Amino acid sequence: MIKFVLMVNRQGQTRLSRYYDPVELNRRTLLENHVVHCCLSRRKDQCSFVEYKDFKLVYRQYAALYIVVGVTDNENELSVYELVHNFVEVLDKYFSRVSELDIMFNLDRVHIILDEMIQNGHVVETNKSRVLALLTALDKMADG
Fold this sequence. Notes:
This protein is of the alpha+beta class. The protein has helices at 25-40, 77-95, 100-105, 107-117, 128-143, and strands spanning 2-9, 14-19, 49-52, 55-62, 65-71, 118-119, 122-123.
């Protein structure tokens, strides 16, 4: 099961966070700081899977952004690693070469995409066209 998804920049600033397990707000900040430091301090030649307390971290770097996913011990790390790549591909398809600014200024749309792919900590959809169908419909309604 997926416990959380974080998207952070190289400076460690959180750009997106979604928790699927309840975590108190004051503990979230501490958790994010530790997790981000753990992932950002690793070298490029090190594995993208990290044992952290009672769960595993799977992270992937795209330009200046890191996507970090916290998963339970029984989750397949490689499938989560590929899910992260799929998520970025969907973002690229929607935003035409997604950037950190796209995420910051369209956070609601990024959350919709993430919610279409993951619900209650479980992957429910990976097909890019189906994931984007809701946003495409919303965009058509907005354009009138």
